[in-house]
Amino acid sequence: MEYKLLALDLDGTLYTSDNRITKNTRKIIQEARKKGLLVTLATGRNYPSAKLVAKHLNLELPIITNDGAYIINHLDDKPLFEKRIENEIIIEIVEVLLQYNLNFMILHESSSFGNFNYLGWRMFLRFFNIHSFKTLLAEKSKYRRMSNDKIIQYIKNNKTKPFKIFVDGNHEQINEGRLELEEKFKDKIRITNSGYGMEILSLNISKASGLEILTSELGFDKKEVIAIGDSFNDLEMIDYVGLGIAMGNAPLEIQNKAKFVTKTNDDDGVAHAIDEFFLKIKA
To answer: Are 98 and 75 in a shared domain?
Structure first.
């Protein structure tokens, strides 16, 4: 099979544990692009953050952000697809999250708000290098932190519907909150996990649905696509494409779904997979 498109997850996949994209990985990506492989991003991150990465890698295709809820051409900021959650549902979800004392961030295309502490130590320690610190600052500048009692009123006054809710907090409380949300909104939302926290999306939205839209736009068959990821929000994407690859640092459940398991994100796993399944074939 000749592969034409590569979709890359970011955190835990393209990025190392200390939030770098290695020189070798960048080099291999550019070599593959020169030999005809198209590259896009498929990430749970919001658009401003993903756009910085796309520019850093000089990518040209539309990118899949917010776990498939927002697909956009970052070169001219023109959306290809968007699927938002109704504000009435957002309010009900927030009320459940507050009952479990969970921290959350509600994401729009270029801004976000919530009670999440963006510059807390857990978040800060993820950003060790200049590129990632710039990403953190770019995201932080678009984020508005509020007290719990003001959030619901803000949603009521804000006519723009969001794409996603990111939830952080105690694992036991997250699991309890998830069970209640899945029971209450089972025909309205999809809940997944990025490895960093719980993510709430519109029903049937995933990185796989995003790739289906993008491949249709490009005129490719899904069998011509490689996707690489490491977490539970990558499962559908890995299962959907012709060659689904799991990172060596991925949980076993993700690895078992994949057709191939590459090296870890700290051992240039993305570069190794590209070399194995594209560059050697093109040599």
So the answer is: no
Among 205, 210, 204, which Cα is nearest to 225's? 210
d(CA 216, CA 213): 5
Contact by Cβ (8 Å): 41, 257: no
Helices (H), 130-184: 130-141, 148-157, 171-184
Each residue's pLDDT tens digit, 47-103: 988 999 999 999 999 999 999 999 999 999 999 999 999 999 999 999 999 999 999
Helix (H) or strand (E) holding 30: helix 23-34
Please state the domain count of the chain: 2
Q: Which residue, of 146, 174, 202, is where some domain finishes?
A: 202
Query: Both 222 and 170 in a single domain?
Result: no
Predicted confidence at residue 283, as pLDDT, reads 63
Structural domain for 270, as ranges: 5-83+205-282
CB-based contacts of 127: which residues, under 8 Å, 6+ apart?
19, 133, 135, 136
Per-residue pLDDT for 224 more than 70? yes
Residue 10's nearest CA partner among 139, 188, 120, 115 is 139
Domain end marker among 175, 202, 229 = 202
CA angle 160, 166, 170 (to 5 degrees): 145
Joined tokens for residue 174: 């997250």
